Amino acid sequence: MNIKNLNFQFPKLELPKIDLPKIKLPEIKMPVLKLGDLRVKLPIVQGGMGVGISLSRLAASVANEGGIGVIAANAIGMIEPDYFKNGVEANVRALRKEIRKAKALTDGIIGVNIMVALNDYPLMLKTSIEEKIDVVFLGAGLPLHGIPVDEIEKNNVKVVPIVSSARAAKLIFSFWQKKYGRVPDGVVVEGPRAGGHLGFKLEQIDDPDFKLEKLIPEVVSEISAFQKMFKRKIPVIAAGGIFTGADIYKFFKLGASAVQMGSRFVATEECDADIAFKESFVNARKKDITIIKSPVGLPGRAIRNSFLEDVEAGKRKKFKCPWKCLEHCKAEKAQYCISVALDNARKGKMRHGYAFAGSNAYRIKKIVPVKELVEELRRDYILLIETRTQKMKIEFEKTKKRLQNLKKEYEDAIETSINQLKDEYARVVQKGSSMFREEIEKYFKNIEELKEEYIKNFRLMIEIRSNIRSALI
């Protein structure tokens, strides 16, 4: 047989040119919160806790750690001696003093939490703007009408409404866009596990459809249209029941850009409340965290104590209404004045008041400095990511080693196959080409399978690397 009649040529065999990717884990840290032109190094907002719980000392301490420290404007005038004579004036005076004190204590970011439902809301907002506060958080109502946009922009004040649903967020943003030609700078989404008054009906509090984990993606989706319209990032801030660094990570993965935390900052040395108030958190048991019906008609979450037990038993607490802070308040029918009760608690008179608290308040075991709390949250957050990424990095390196072995196996198979085929060719050339072609196909099929496995493993490496980057937020 003429060898030329076989018309056989060895094909060019080579692996696709693939550079094996390398992986280098960057420094793991919490992302920066961008709120307009503000850059918040620590993406944590200290919740505004009314009637003197979060004042200048706590707010400045949080701001010094890189977060947003918040002064609560609600009944802040109760720290003034003339509140029962001049309630509105005392509120304005106290708010102005506390803002100035906080600014003297920090170069960080300070905010004010203002309840829209209160009668002095416009005055407290005006005062905050005049004092050039960094951020105003507007909750307990929809901040729609009477927003002094020109003054807000002139003083570079950021506005962040607090909502409990995507529907409320859309309503606020749509209204602002049409009436003011702009939208708020961010939005806090407060879920049903928060402390204090809740923006939910009693039956919604434990309903899975109203969990914060469900609300955050819904609000993020709703806000996305306004981000495109105004071509800027509008951060969503998760609030209610957030306790650990792992919780923070979870809500970041759901689309939040920051978190708001209240109860954890109560049990700090810098919290402006009396030590007895703080100790009520440390001593609370899980069964003590309860839902109450507030005199203002809303459900609220608080720590059960003798005062609340008396209220449940129908006992009316004697009080004098300082001033009609809430338009629809029926003081003559109320069992107690909530502002007076909360102020008593702030002063440590727990038998004459009570503490609002989030659902996880019972997990607090000690009072610590703000710095220590922040370091714990940051450490837990980083440790969680390190653990996850380290596992993926190990898997990445194993796959990379597998690829290197496959590459060598492939190259060895080609060299062996070609040498064997050449020898076989010389021996069987007289037996006919069909048998020889079968041998060729068998060798090349094996080589092709090695190539496919190589490519599959390479794609796996790319996927692992992508997952690691995703885990780093």
List keywords for this structure.
13 strands; three-stranded antiparallel sheet; eight-stranded parallel sheet; TIM Barrel; 13 helices; alpha/beta; 473 residues
- Helix percent band: 40-55%
The chain-level mean pLDDT equals 85
Strand content: 5-15%
> What is the SS-derived class?
alpha/beta
Total strands: 13
Largest β sheet strand count, sense and barrel closure? 8 strands, parallel
Shape: elongated
Could you state the CATH homologous superfamily of the largest domain? Aldolase class I
- By CATH reckoning, the class of the largest domain would read Alpha Beta
Query: How are the strands of the largest sheet arranged?
Result: 3-11-10-8-7-6-5-4
Based on the structure given, which CATH architecture of the largest domain is correct? Alpha-Beta Barrel
Q: Based on the structure, what is the oligomeric state of the protein chains?
A: single chain
Work out the radius of gyration.
32 Å
**Count of the domains:** 2
CATH topology of the largest domain: TIM Barrel
Number of helices: 13
Terminal-residue CA separation = 69 Å
Weakly predicted, low-confidence segments: 1-8
Order of helices and strands: EEEHEHEHEHEHEEHEHEHHEEHHHH
How would the blueprint of this fold be written?
Layout: E1 33-35, E2 38-40, E3 44-46, H1 56-64, E4 68-72, H2 87-105, E5 109-115, H3 121-130, E6 135-139, H4 149-154, E7 158-163, H5 166-179, E8 187-190, E9 196-197, H6 212-230, E10 236-239, H7 245-253, E11 258-261, H8 263-266, H9 275-282, E12 289-293, E13 299-303, H10 306-312, H11 338-346, H12 370-428, H13 433-471
Parallel strand pairs: 3-11, 4-5, 5-6, 6-7, 7-8, 8-10, 10-11
Antiparallel strand pairs: 1-2, 9-13, 12-13
Helix pairs in contact: 1-2, 2-3, 5-6, 7-12, 12-13
